[in-house]
Amino acid sequence: MEQMQFALLGRLDAPSVVxxxxxxxxxxxxxxxxxxxxxxxxxxxxxxxxxEEAGLYAPHVTCYLHDSDRQRDLPGSAVRAFEWVCxxxxxxxxxxxxxxxxxxxxxxxxxxxx
Length: 114
Prior knowledge:
This protein is mainly alpha-helical. The protein has one domain. It has 6 helices and 2 strands; from the N terminus they run E-E-H-H-H-H-H-H. A two-stranded antiparallel sheet has the order 1-2. Strand 1 and strand 2 form a beta hairpin. It is elongated and about 55 Å long.
């Protein structure tokens, strides 16, 4: 299992898996990002600390976690670092669930067309 070193946090294990019933409650990408943050391993971590550890621009982190859909989204290139710092894989799991549904729907449509 991979481990990551943080200066003040000590040793952390690789991100853990989020229960599927929580992932299924996420309707949007932003919901998955917010779930990942809400389930963070270090409960007293600030958004500024998240930005420092994940290599994100601090003022944008607030936008990533805000309720409004008109805010900017967490870039795809930052998902891995975001998940490592938070300690769970909620965002990746949400993407996986969405991809499987799309593939199933596509297969259903192809079978119906044949």
